[in-house]
Amino acid sequence: MNTQAPGDDKAPESTQDDKQTQLTALGEQVLSQWREEREADEAAEARRVAEVEQAARESRERLLAEVAALPSLPGVYRYFDAQGQVLYVGKAKNLKRRVSSYFQKDHGGTRIGMMVARIARLETTVVRTEAEALLLENNLIKALDPRFNILFRDDKSYPYLRLSGHEWPRISYYRGAVDRRHRYFGPFPSAWAVKESIQLLQKVFHLRTCEDTVFNNRSRPCLLFQIRRCSGPCVPEGRTDEYRRNVRNAERFLLGETEEVLQGLQDQMMAHAERLEYEQAAELRNQIGALSRVLQQQAVDENSATGRDRDVDILAVKVQGGRACVNLAMVRGGRHLGDRAYFPRHVDDATALRLDALDDDDRGLAESEHSPERQVLEAFIAQHYLEAAVPPLLVLSHAVDEELGQALSAQAGYKVGTQPQPRGQRRIWQEMCVKGAELALARLLAEEGSQQARTRALAEALDLNLGDLDRLRIECFDISHTAGEATMASCVVFEGHQMQSSQYRRYNIEGVTGGDDYAAMRQVLTRRYSKLAEAAQNGQGRLPDLVLVDGGKGQVSMAREVFEELGLDLGLIVGVEKGEGRKVGLEELVFADGREKVYLGRDSAALMLVAQIRDEAHRFAITGMRARRASVRTGGSRLEDVPGVGPKKRAQLLQRFGGVRGVAGASVEELAGVKGISRELAEEIYRALH
Predict the structure, then answer these.
(1) 12 pLDDT band (50/70/90 cuts)?
(2) Cα 126 from Cα 69, distance rounded (Å)
(3) Are 623 and 639 members of one domain?
(4) Where are the beta strands (DSSP E) in 531-675?
(5) Candidate ranges 201-205, 304-308, 521-525; pick with highest mean pLDDT
(6) 425 and 474 share a domain?
(7) Comparing C-alpha atoms, which of 423, 391, 383 is closest to residue 409?
(8) Both 588 and 663 in a single domain?
(9) Span 20-38, mean pLDDT?
(10) 594 CB contacts (<8 Å, ≥6 apart)?
(11) Residues 630-639: pLDDT tens digits?
(12) DSSP state of 256
């Protein structure tokens, strides 16, 4: 029986309409809520942008107020960005006028405009004279490494030739702090130049080169005596007045008194001949001949090397292709000791910034007083001679500011002259130095072009999507040990198309089974990237674009585990696996993200770059491991390097003080209390360990 009431057939349609109405209302409500949230977000973002802009305006107003309040005195100014990084360091005769010039006009898209837009605050230091401002400016440039200043990298200290204060003096190579008990000659531009001079003095004057520990324990002369390279003062027969005369002649020769030395030797030879002492006369004749041949080989004209020409530095600059080279040639004692090339950073930015900052009236002087060559040369002179000894004369390829010479004179305590247009022999030196700068810069540009090609080849081979190859950063790891002893891990960095040695790191591996390279790799990667990954997430650090590990699937698997735990991209990891027979050129690249192995080819530029980085990591690891192993076995390599401390004395010191740290913490008096350690040797040990 049909029990449906009249009109019930319409009920389902009403229910469906009601549901549709409810859904529509709900949709409108959700849409309205989304619009309100979006409007709120947009309003919050607008407020945030307004607050940032307001803060920027207030910061700029404060900055301009500081500029307006600057004194009209000489001084040094520093510009900083919002992150506190130094942008530029400059000096001024009038701080207010100079600093104000940066903010008084719109510099547009020039380099100075880019820098001024980033300035968040400034610091100034008032000084008494322009010379003080110049010295302070370059001290700060070396300390702060500003983005828009020409910067010459600090190199190792220059080597010297040392003549010891011993009763029977020894000639030796030396680098480090000067000790007044000894005589030092130099500086020399390279270690090779020092060693060549030592060989010369051995041939001509037969001076000893052995350390005091060897000298004091000889019972008969060594081989150098047999081949006429030493007089043999280690035995009584060689301790004669003749050796002392040779020492004095060697000193005079190094000081440039060559004519006097030759004349003295000739007088002695004639005196021996008159007394019929022909053997002694023949010895002096051979000595005169050897010295004359050496002097003839010198590039310097000895007849003109008098007065100020005995000690001269020749400086030449070459700027090309956005890079610069300063070549420094040294003349000491009238002898040309060689040259050394320096390559500054930030040349393009710094030179363009200086030109952009010029007033219209000054632009006509850009080719002379503000040329890039002059800027680079002035920066080198100011930075280089802050810590190095300056000779009385600088022969230059370009003229520099007179204030620079005055500042050097005030610092040195004697007159320092600069000569940009020399004549005669000095002109020959200048031309030689200019040619050296040109060749060195051409070689650098060729090497950089080759290195950039390698970087590009590797990026293409690995499909690295980088807009700027100059920013490609690669970190490479290697493990080194000796049968499980003294395990050391290395991390080397490649960036800007070159190895960045200042960013290298070594890691002592502890708490793993000796010889377990996998565990060692796990430890070093965890230590390296745990904090770096956290900093990168907060925008405060930068992860590398590529992580190379020296090894195949095993090392790559270990690296993958570490990166998975830290939440890092597995695509960064690449292993360098030895090829068949472990032959060079057959290496394959192994990936942690599942990609197939890649064989780049023996002649591949990309493989050359990978091999270069991998070999550098291996070298850095093995040298660190050897140093650590030597420290463990002998109690510290620094103690081994002290002249006069042999195995027995070193063992006595370590036993007395319980290790190298104890020796380092001992006073001179405590060291001298050890059997066999004299007061003089105790002072030498103390200096070496502090």
Answers:
(1) low
(2) 13
(3) no
(4) 546-550, 573-577, 588-591
(5) 521-525
(6) no
(7) 391
(8) no
(9) 79
(10) none
(11) 655 544 446 7
(12) T
Query: Which tokens go with 33?
Result: 């809520």
Q: 613-647: per-residue pLDDT in tens?
A: 999 999 999 988 877 766 555 444 467 667 778 77
Please tell me the predicted confidence (pLDDT) of residue 328.
92
Structure tokens at 441: 């810069």
Burial of 54 (0-12, 13-18, 19+ CB in 10 A): exposed
Q: What dihedral angle (degrees, nearest 10) is formed by the CA atoms of 59, 62, 64, 66? A: -130
- What domain range is 662 assigned to? 635-688
CA nearest to 251, candidates 164, 180, 330, 338: 164
| Terminal-to-terminal C-alpha distance of the chain | 113
In angstroms, what CA-CA distances link 84 with 87, 114, 321, 473, 675? Answer: 9, 16, 31, 24, 55
More confident residue, 207 or 153: 207
Tokens of 414: 């004697």
Name the domain count of the chain: 4
* Cα angle for residues 437, 438, 443 (degrees, 5° grid): 100
Instruction: With respect to residue 251, please indicate whether it lies within any of the assigned structural domains.
Output: no
Cα-based distances in Å from 443 to 325, 440, 498:
11, 5, 15
The pTM score is 0.63
Give yes or no for residue 474 having a pLDDT over 90.
Answer: yes
299 pLDDT band, cuts 50/70/90, is very low
How far apart, in whole angstroms, are the C-alpha atoms of residue 408 and residue 422? 20
DSSP state of 156: P
